[in-house]
Amino acid sequence: MPKIQARLFCQSLYVTLYFLAASVIPFAALLVDTVYLQNSVGEESVVEYCQDIFLIILSVLFFRQAHRHKEARSGFLLMGFFFLTMLIRETDNIFDMLIYHGSWSLFAAPIATFAVVYALLNETETLNALTDFTQSKEFYSFIIGLLLVLVISRLIGMSWLWRSIFYYAYPRIVKNIAEEYTELLGYSIMCFSCIKYIRSKA
Hints:
The chain crosses the membrane at residues 12-31, 46-63, 97-121, 142-161. Keywords: Membrane, Transmembrane, Transmembrane helix. This protein is mostly helical. The chain has one domain. The protein is 85% helix and 0% strand. The chain has helices at residues 2-37, 46-68, 73-90, 92-98, 104-121, 123-134, 138-156, 159-166, 172-201. Helix 3 packs antiparallel against helix 5. The protein is globular.
């Protein structure tokens, strides 16, 4: 019995350290931006580049799973294309410079449409992948990361909130730091969760 308890404790400690690392990376990126580079954590910043890197990793992870598991291919492709679409949205400034403002949607919309249609046409494969992922322990931490990106960071980044706090004369860098750091933390948690999930299935 003590051996089982010790093993469970070590597993819990491992998970804690694993996600501690996921929390440290965003903070380190923020320090580099604000202390060493002294920028406003805008489009061209270490925080933004880290967000892009995490999204690339997430896309590649699920595309590899789609290649390896034919019985669940469409589901893993759906997740891979989901993160690819998010990557296109995160790099919208590049499309704005090369084409016109908002042109990122010209690339994201067809990819998202293809992913959804393909997933619906291969319902069994899609359900196999999504069911397996949603039933895993890592799914819960993944959802926390997704909510940080899609909900919490958006709420924190609302301009009217900061105008209410600072009476219309708020420093934009404070808003950027709060919003972008929260977003990066969410991407980091999602990335570490998916890596752990895929490692557990290897």
